[in-house]
């Protein structure tokens, strides 16, 4: 409701203002101020709620971005660690593969020598050499 200045001050331009007219004008002004204050409070609260919602949304977005960045850094760290560990594992596997091959060759040589010794010596019941 808008405040009507002319009506509040005088009934007509020629008649003097009475105490009742002043009282009515003050009442209308107070009513106008209360309504304006209520509207302002409502607008301010709506604005504050909107700003709060926007702030919460921005905070949530930034937090999610921070978490994603942290996850990426952790995964990159694991990737570097796994790459180094994989190289070491392959080296060990190759070393054990070479060790197995070398051991097999040595056992094969020992078996051949043992067979040659057995052929030269007669092991068992017949002391005659085999031909």
What does this protein look like?
The protein has about 130 residues and is mainly alpha-helical. The chain has helices at about 5-10, 20-120. The model has no long low-confidence stretch (mean pLDDT about 85).
Quick summary of this structure?
This protein is mostly helical. About 80% of the residues lie in helices and about 0% in strands.
Features:
single chain; 131 residues; mainly alpha
Unreliable stretches covering 5 or more consecutive residues: none
Largest sheet report? none
The helix content is over 70%
Rg, alpha carbons: 52 Å
* Terminal CA distance: 134 Å
- Helix count equals 2
Give average pLDDT, whole number: 84
Proportion of β residues?
Answer: under 5%
What global shape is seen? rod-shaped
Name the helix and strand elements from N-terminus to C-terminus, one letter apiece. HH
Structural class: mainly alpha
Number of strand segments: 0
Break the fold down into its secondary structure elements and pairings.
Blueprint (H helix, E strand, L loop, with lengths): L4 H5 L9 H102 L11
